[in-house]
Specification:
Elements lengths: L4 H9 L20 E4 L3 H14 L4 E4 L8 H4 L3 H9 L1
Parallel strand pairs: 1-2
Bound molecules: flavin-adenine dinucleotide.
The site of flavin-adenine dinucleotide has 19 residues, from helix 2, helix 3 and helix 4.
Amino acid sequence: MRYSAFSIVRQALTGNVNWKPAWRQPEPKPFYDVIIVGGGGHGLATAYYLAKEFGLKNIAVLEKGYLGSGNVGLQYHDRALQLHAAR
Ligand SMILES: Cc1cc2nc3c(=O)[nH]c(=O)nc-3n(C[C@H](O)[C@H](O)[C@H](O)COP(=O)(O)OP(=O)(O)OC[C@H]3O[C@@H](n4cnc5c(N)ncnc54)[C@H](O)[C@@H]3O)c2cc1C
């Protein structure tokens, strides 16, 4: 998928509700070499380095929300920043 500055501005002005998903939705396979629970920074980095350094290609990352929806994404969320500041 390609993103233009125009499309990013248009999406920002219309509530960011018209983005097409940038990922596939494949059926789960019956077998994986590695299953990682959690698509946060650690889970995604683990999957990336297992593929890059060890050549594994049959890896599943199971995420209950959306990728980066945990603390790794919350760092920049307004509410999280408020909570962080209140500590
Ligand atoms: C406000 C704030 C500021 C921070 N600032 C810094 C900083 O400046 N520097 C720094 O190094 N660190 C900082 N951190 C800490 C850093 O964000 C975390 O250490 C890091 O994000 C942890 O990554 P993670 O992948 O382990 O967890 P997460 O990013 O939380 O990811 C875990 C993922 O697992 C998923 N999950 C959970 N349970 C299940 C399940 N049963 N099935 C499927 N999926 C599941 C969640 O939905 C989530 O996406 C900050 C954290 C916060 C909240």
